Amino acid sequence: MKHPAPFLKVRVSDFEAEPWLVAMCAGYENGEWREDQLIEHAMEWLPEFSLKYSECVSLGAHNAVKLLRKAAKALYKTEKFKSRGEFGELFLHMILRQVYGTIPAICKMHYKDSRNDTVKGFDCVHVVSKDDELELWIGEVKFYKEITSAIRDVVKELHEHTERDYLRDEFVAITNKIDETWPHSERLKKLLDENASLDDVFDSVAIPVLLTYDSKTINGHKKITKAFEVEFEKEIRQNFDKFVEKEIPECINVSLILLPLRSKEDLQSKLHGELQLWS
Questions:
Q1: Which terminus in the chain has less CB density within 10 A, N or C?
Q2: Where does the Anti-bacteriophage protein A/HamA C-terminal domain start and stop, copy by copy (predicted)?
């Protein structure tokens, strides 16, 4: 599927590091961090993020408004938006598609059991198709304002979510949500088959971890300059070191993605307002 043109810029990347490190940047315009532009860009991804594959490929002039409203409602159905993480999941979806070239496997919004439920399980289910092999990318997000808390909580979840019984249940849930019209449906079902050894599955699994936080560097500048670039990379490297100091499960292939923000609360509030126009 064709996706929106890139907006976030990769400002730090290190694929020699363990885990891989990528840091994204929204940049500035007229002395302001590009918050409004980031929200506009996120809305462009909404149909692909919130609709099933069969719905997304059918999107056209005849049903665009109807499906866009359905996409917004699927993402956002509650006034209790301060404790929700779906916005972070949307950002993870955007970044994985842009940077890693992944393909969405299932619509995570179909994990919702009832109105006002948060989405359970991993925060994204994507794949990367390489020749005859299929890699499963199951992500974790902490859409936070404070990086230390984000690291603490995501490491805890990494341990919980890589336990054998949890993974088996999650793979069943993923399999049950696969759209039969999706081109890779049979290959993914085969990878996640209950008779497959988890040792073999882990060789084909990556867990991208997206952490957001209110950034001193973002708030301390109004333009991309050399001084900004130096401070930005220093901040990213320091936060990467905090992450790798933790005990991360050795059985998984983790990628760390950092998205520094001006204000998580302001961004979340504006995203809430934008979605209200559609839902």
A1: N
A2: 14-272
- In the 8-state DSSP scheme, what is residue 96? I
Which tokens hold the place of 13? 């990347």
Give the C-alpha distances (Å, rounded to integers) separating 30 from 40, 118, 120, 214, 223. Answer: 17, 37, 40, 20, 8
Supply the pTM of this predicted model. Answer: 0.89
Tokens 């809430």, residue located: 272
Predicted local distance difference test score (pLDDT) of residue 64: 55
Quickly count helices (H) and strands (E) in the chain.
11, 9
Round to whole Å and give the CA distance between 174 and 41. 28
Closest CA to 51 of 81, 76, 75, 77: 75
Q: Name the range with the highest mean pLDDT among 37-46, 124-133, 257-266.
A: 257-266
Across-strand partners of 187?
none
* Residue 73 · residue 279 · CB < 8 Å: yes
Structure tokens at 30: 């007229």
- Per the listing, tokens 């341990």 go with 159
Query: Using one digit for the tens of pLDDT, what is the confidence trace for 26-41?
Result: 999 999 999 999 999 9
CB 262 within 8 A of CB 71: no
* Domain spans of the chain, in order of start: 9-276
